[in-house]
Write a sequence for this structure.
């Protein structure tokens, strides 16, 4: 009887021990699982902290950020177009826009020109563009579309007289603007999210205008007139009231044009006799043809014009009469020319 009881007790003891071992193993397994989980979570949190310290978004946020605000829809003269939020390869087909972009801190991948061999901007910017390898797409009226295609732009900017919208749109998102002057500058700033830069430039410009106007009032008599002309091949052009340099002379600096000479809407051509009849006291001239220029101002009748007799004919760079940076420099040029003093 005792051996049987011993065997039974041994079996009971064995079973209890077995259950204890299983419980212990299960407990160890659970603890191990918890520790591994905490380790994985800790490593993930540490990695996110490292990414944050390095200015990087955690990967789950980064992937979602890539899909947000990549493009935006812009309204323009041809409707609406989806463009990159931050375009990096802008192609400028209207030559004057290149300077507006530079003022806003944006360098285009390429641009057309107005004067062969030069981008349509002041000398300082022109050299910077050439040094930066900006592509010349050719004359603004007939740009090189093959060069435009090879440049792989991510945004193309046209003006309203370009007849290439459909063709350009096949290359990259294309917008066409029908504004000019300051309105166009502000529209470009809005499209490129550069309103702060535009506001800073305009503020400095307005201050310069105020100072220059006060100086000129002391050097130009109330009855003296000022005229801007362009000398072409066998033609003398007088630009309209809305032309950027005329707005500078008359609307902003307060100078007076000769009566009945400035056209309302577009540039008009006058003869040497017409220039004599206008008899301006001050002449600013944009020279596009040296031979005809010399012919005009060697004319005995023209030499009797007040401005010519009194050596108040001032030749200025073409970029001074068209562009914003040029206009800012033109304020200095006009003031220094009339007063004979440098600021």
């Amino acid at each position: 009887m005792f051996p049987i009881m011993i065997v039974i007790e041994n079996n009971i003891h064995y079973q209890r021990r077995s259950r204890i071992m299983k419980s212990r193993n299960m407990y160890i397994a659970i603890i191990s699982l918890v520790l591994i989980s905490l380790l994985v979570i800790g490593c993930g949190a540490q990695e996110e902290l490292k990414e944050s310290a390095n200015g990087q978004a955690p990967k789950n946020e980064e992937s979602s950020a890539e899909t947000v605000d990549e493009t935006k829809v812009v309204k323009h003269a041809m409707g609406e177009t989806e463009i990159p939020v931050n375009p990096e390869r802008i192609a400028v087909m209207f030559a004057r826009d290149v300077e507006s972009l530079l003022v806003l801190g944006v360098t285009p991948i390429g641009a057309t020109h107005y004067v062969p061999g030069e981008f349509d901007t002041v000398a300082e910017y022109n050299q910077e563009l050439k040094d930066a390898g900006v592509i010349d797409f050719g004359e603004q009226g007939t740009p090189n579309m093959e060069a435009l295609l090879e440049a792989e732009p991510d945004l193309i900017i046209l003006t309203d007289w370009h007849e290439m919208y459909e063709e350009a749109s096949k290359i990259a998102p294309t917008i066409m603007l029908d504004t000019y002057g300051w309105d166009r500058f502000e529209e470009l700033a809005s499209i490129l999210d550069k309103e702060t830069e535009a506001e800073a430039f305009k503020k400095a410009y307005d201050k310069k205008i105020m100072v220059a106007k006060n100086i000129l009032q002391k050097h130009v008599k109330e009855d003296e007139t000022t005229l801007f002309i362009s000398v072409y091949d066998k033609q003398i052009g007088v630009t309209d009231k809305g032309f950027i340099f005329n707005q500078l002379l008359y609307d902003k600096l307060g100078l007076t044009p000769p009566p009945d000479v400035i056209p309302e809407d577009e540039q008009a051509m006058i003869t040497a006799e017409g220039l004599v009849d206008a008899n301006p006291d001050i002449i600013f001239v944009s020279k596009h043809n040296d031979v005809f220029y010399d012919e005009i101002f060697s004319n005995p009748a023209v030499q009797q014009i007040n401005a010519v007799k009194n050596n108040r004919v001032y030749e200025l760079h073409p970029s001074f009469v068209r562009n914003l940076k040029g206009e800012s420099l033109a304020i200095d040029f006009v003031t220094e020319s009339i007063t004979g003093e440098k600021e």
User: Anything to note?
Assistant: The radius of gyration is 36 Å. The chain has three domains: 2-64, 71-193, 199-339.
